Every structure is written in C-alpha cells, then in structure tokens.
Amino acid sequence: MTAIRLYNTRTRSKEAFEPFDARNVRMYVCGPTVYDRAHLGNARPVVVFDTLFRLLRHVYGEDHVKYVRNFTDVDDKINATALARQEAGAPGTLEDLIHQRTEETIGWYHADMDALGALRPTKEPRATEYIGAMVAMIEGLIERGHAYEVAGHVLFDVRSYPEYGRLSGRSVDDMIAGARVEVAPYKRDPMDFVLWKPSDASLPGWESPWGRGRPGWHIECSAMSYELLGASFDIHGGGIDLAFPHHENEVAQSCCAHPGSDFARVWMHNEMLLVEGKKMSKSLGNFFTVRELLEQGYPGEVIRFVMLSTHYRKPMDWTAEKAREAEGVLRHWRALTADAEPTGPDAELVEALADDLNGAGAMARLHALAKAIASNPQKDCFYEKGVFLASARLLGLLDEGMGGWAEGVDLSALAGKLADLRTAAMASKDFAPVDALKSALIAAGVEVRMSKAGVELVPGAGFDPAKLEGL
Ligand SMILES: Nc1ncnc2c1ncn2[C@@H]1O[C@H](COP(=O)(O)OP(=O)(O)OP(=O)(O)O)[C@@H](O)[C@H]1O
Ligand SMILES: [Zn+2]
C-alpha cells in the first residue's frame, strides 16, 4: 500500500499517515459560510482537499473514505444579507429570506466547485440541521466545568483546558497580548469564546436551556464532526487563517466534551491565495469570484491546474499569465490523449502526491510524461497515454465531464489542407504556400509534424486558436 506522509500542524512535522481504521478513513474540512459567492481564495482549500480525497480513495478504496465538509448556514453575515434584502423591500419573513439566501448560495457553491472538478464530499451537513447536537454538546461542557452561562450567553472557559493554544503554538497569555479579543464584561477571561448567544425577535433562534438563541461558529464544526465522524477521526483541514482561533476552539470544545478522545489526529492547513501580497478576502474587498473567472472564459480545469502547480503550504498568486500557460498546456494534453483510455496512474506521480500532497511535484511528473509521449511520434504510445490520462484524472484533470472549454478546434481540416499543398508543391516545386501555412500554424502554437505517413497537427503549449482564423 502507498505510504502517505502528511504535514501535521499540531506537531509541526511531516508524519507517516496511519488511519484509525483503513476501511473507514475520515476527514473533516471546514466549509463555507453561505452568504455570498465563493471567491478564488475560498476555492483553494476545495481543490487541495479534493486532491487529498482522491488520493485517499486511490490508496484505501473509494468506499473506505468519508469526507465531510459543512455549510455554515448560521451566521451574522447571513442575517445581515437577508436583513438588507428585507429593507430593500423583498417579500417574506426574515427567516424565509435567510433560507432563500443560503439555498441560493449553496447552489452557486456547488455549481462553481463542480466546475473546478471537485468531487462532492461524502456528506455536506448544514449547521441548522445539527442545532440539537450543539445544544447537547454545550450542556456536556457546562456539566464538566468547561463552560458557564452568563447574561444569556454560554462561554467556553479557556483556563479550564490547560492544552488551549497547543495547536497554534501559543499560550493563553500570549494570545491575550496579541489578539483582538472581544472584550465583554461578563467574560471570566478575555479569551473565553461564545458557545451560545441570545437572539432577539428579529434574528433566527432556537429554544435552548439558556433561552432562545443561536450557536457560536466554532461549536458548529465540533458538533457536526462528532455526529458524522465520531469523537476521534483522522484528518481535519481548512485554510491556515482558521488555525486560530477557529480550530484551536474546536479542539478545546471537542476534547473537553469527549475526554480521552483525540478529536482530529492530523491537522492540515492550506496557505493563502494572495492578491499583491495580501490574503484575498471579502473583508479587504480585494477579491474576485470563481464565477467571474468562469464567465471570463477560463475553464474550471485551468483554475484547478494553476492551483495544483503550487504546493498547498505555500502562498500563491493568481495571474493571467499562469492561466494562459495552463490553458495552452491543457489543450495540448487533451489533444494528446484524445484517443486514450485511462489505465492506472503513474507510480512516481502517486508517490509525489503521497509525499504531503506535493501537487507541484505531481504536475512536474505529468509534464514529463506528456513530453515523453509527444516526442515519440513514431509510436502510438497507447499504453503511455493510458497511464498519463489516469494520472491526470487522479489530480482531477482531463476529466470527460469538465466543461468550460470553448468549442473544440478541429485541426484535421488544416492538416488535410497542408497535406494537399505539399502534394501540389511536389509537382510544381514551389514550396512557398506550404511554408507559409506551416509558419502560420507554428505562430498559432500548433506543433506541425510532417512525415511520409501524413501530416499531424497537435496544439502546443502556447496554442491560441484565435490565430487560426482565416487559414
Ligand atoms: N485567500 C484565501 N486563500 C486560501 N483559502 C482561503 C482564503 N480565504 C478564505 N479561505 C478559506 O476558505 C474557506 C471558507 O472560508 P469562509 O467561508 O470562512 O471564508 P469567508 O469568510 O468567505 O472568507 P473571507 O476570509 O474572505 O472573509 C476556509 O477554509 C478558509 O480558510
Ligand atoms: Zn470549522
């Protein structure tokens, strides 16, 4: 069995991955707060953990991996969006408008992430479906002396959990010094965080032992992961921006609610997608959505290609240059494998992925495999193409279902024309028309292969179909 090694934020080292149960490998990833379209940064954890999901399925078997990614559909940002719609005159109660907003956003999210070739997780729980589990967990925390009720709120008592801060490697005192914590007079410690808060009549709320209210964000993930994956599971993922406080708080809640359990054994965090050196984020306003890119004509596969080409633990930028290159390469690869049937993925590529999900290494291997096929035009390379295609698909690329490509350009007519010109030139001894067409094709990024057997045209890395017009 392929040995997987993963970098664990908790131990700050790369470790051999050993699931609790190889027949039931379990992963939880923090999903989106569904109040608006996903921006390109939000797509990075989706692509990263989808690639890990694919690798785990390859190694342990499709039916032996469970991937849970939640939808946070209780959040003040969602309430604010719905309220703004109501104030703008939209009909319906606030609850109706909230529901409409979350439904709509989940639909968009699915469409956008499907376009990136991301498989749907095994389960996609919504926070609103697990309020009972959250209330039960909070009650348990109060009973065990880890939480207290005050002024209609329930707060987690960070001083009751000596390990608090271990995941992100800080002490409570350092955190207080460095963090912008919400100061509330009723908190025993400034780092104590909300498990439950009251809702007034204008806000969504659920009955609870502490009155009508709603859960805090952190408890949502603790409760949903417990319900669907159990008290101890294998991998917990998300963006590095969530490590503190969100994940630190998840650890505290879950470990205190289920003493003796591990919660998540491996913590994985993707680095940020940046715009001019800053994290792409809604609050900074420096974002563009996945949908905008798709509408500009970038196939989802191109976005995925660009993301995979940088290691997930390195920050990355999106540039039009990278996208153009990716598009050329993918066109070339699609043409190269047009007649191929996927077999099994290349061992070296699997090894790269198994080494802490080295997507950049895996992509380098794909390039090398493609090069070996393209530089061997005498052979049909049927076997090699099958391995190449299976390898690309393990990365979620070159899938049949991946849409977004402009109408396929049919190079066969141009190949026929070039062959005819050559035949005519043999008789007339005037090769100028042949050379002119050949140069134009090369200028458009097409690889021209002329042999006695005939003419073959393959889109190359810089292929630009617009330049073929009029040829
Ligand atoms: N710029 C980014 N690069 C990579 N991942 C990101 C980026 N911004 C957010 N994420 C990740 O996207 C996922 C969804 O996050 P969430 O819905 O909380 O984001 P958000 O609140 O919409 O984003 P923002 O941080 O822009 O306010 C999380 O795993 C988060 O870490
Ligand atoms: Zn979470």
Overall description:
It holds the Pfam family tRNA-synt_1e. InterPro entries: Cys-tRNA-ligase, Cys-tRNA/MSH_ligase, Rossmann-like_a/b/a_fold, tRNA-synt_1_cat_dom, tRNAsynth_Ia_anticodon-bd. ATP binds at residue 282. The chain has 471 residues and is an alpha/beta fold. It has three domains: 5-273, Rossmann fold, CATH 3.40.50.620; 302-406, Four Helix Bundle (Hemerythrin (Met), subunit A), CATH 1.20.120; 412-468, no CATH class. Helix content is 43%, strand content 15%. The chain contains 15 helices and 15 strands. It has helices at 40-60, 76-87, 94-115, 131-143, 172-178, 217-229, 243-257, 290-295, 300-308, 320-336, 347-354, 359-374, 382-394, 412-428, 432-443, and strands spanning 5-8, 13-16, 25-29, 65-69, 147-150, 153-156, 193-198, 213-215, 232-239, 263-270, 273-275, 278-279, 316-317, 446-451, 454-459. The longest helix is centred in the first third of the chain and has 22 residues, at 94-115. The protein is elongated. The two termini are 52 Å apart. The site of adenosine-5'-triphosphate has 19 residues, from helix 1 and strand 9.
